[in-house]
Amino acid sequence: MNNKDAGLEDLSLLSIGLLALALLATGVVAGIIAGLLGVGGGIVIVPVLYYMFTALEIDPSVLMHVAVGTSLATILATGTSSARAHFKRGSVDMDLLKRWWWAIAIGVFAGASLAGNISGGALTLVFGIVALAVSANMMFRKDGSHLADKLPGSPLKEVLGFLIGGISVMMGIGGGTLGVPTLTLFNYPIRKAVGTAAAIGLIIAVPGTLLSIWFGWGVEGRPPFSLGYVNLVGFLLIIPASTLAAPLGAKIAHAIDPSKLKLVFALFLGFTGLRMIYGVLV
After folding, report:
1. 162: helix, coil or strand?
2. What count of other Cβ atoms lies within 10 Å of the Cβ of residue 267?
């Protein structure tokens, strides 16, 4: 199927039905994983969308951009709910955010601008490489280990914020995947790290979504019902599915060994990262 000018006429009713079912399943899986492990759904949503769009023969030049943009849009809803809940519990470090937000935001604009002007293959490589790094961190870093007792001073602290914002927006993820390990590396209490990272997710998702729409505006080859690089069908189906599934994940987490779950997810990330890199280079 040549999908250079993607439209309803290019997809059969069966394909559209499968697309909707796959998006619902993506939301359910993302919600369960988020509830189980406390990670952001984007780290699951992006690779699933990537493989789903590949199976539907969406133009390879844009499919990763759409996966990333759609994931960022879902974080607008899920991140708002998460950040509000953590704020009510006092687990968001507002002092740090006041000093750090602008560096993260500059990183987001830089990362989104770079993502909007590089090939889909290069964007896939970024996701694959960082996914491998996150996988290694989850598998080999011991609980409670840290590099220093507090965050470094300026300008290194701002550089860290810039990198978190820039890399996260290029991957279509919120603040949890990179923010939590970074903060805990500098001896942040895990609950405060998770809560602060949830707020960072909004700093990433708001401009990231708008820039994904901007850079994808009028680009050919996108799936039907896409606003720039944000697929509206994905946005509308993933959010309710992930929201309803997250409590189930949290319930399961209390019934089984979380360390084994963490290992399984790390292996999933490692396999996904390697598969993406292999698909681009071979």
Report:
1. helix
2. 13
Residue pointed to by tokens 């949290």: 250
Tens place of pLDDT for every residue, the chain, 282 residues?
Answer: 444 444 444 556 776 777 788 888 888 877 777 666 656 678 888 988 888 888 878 899 999 999 999 999 998 877 777 788 778 888 889 999 999 999 999 999 999 999 999 999 999 999 999 999 989 988 888 877 778 888 888 899 999 999 999 999 999 998 888 988 899 889 888 788 888 888 898 899 999 999 999 999 999 999 888 999 999 988 998 888 887 887 777 677 667 776 777 787 788 889 989 999 998 898
The answer to whether 29 and 48 have CB atoms below 8 angstroms apart is: yes
Structure tokens at 269: 């990330």
Rounded CA separation 249/251 (Å) = 5
CA–CA separation, 124 and 156 (whole Å):
28
Whole-structure pTM value? 0.86
Tell me which residue has tokens 């899920």.
78
- Alpha-carbon gap, residue 128 to 139, rounded angstroms: 16
The H or E element containing residue 198 is helix 190-216
Q: Which long-range contacts (CB under 8 A, 24 or more apart) does 109-112 make?
A: 109/207, 109/211, 110/162, 110/165, 110/166, 111/165, 111/166, 111/167, 111/168, 111/169, 111/170, 111/208, 112/169, 112/170, 112/207, 112/208, 112/211, 112/212, 112/215
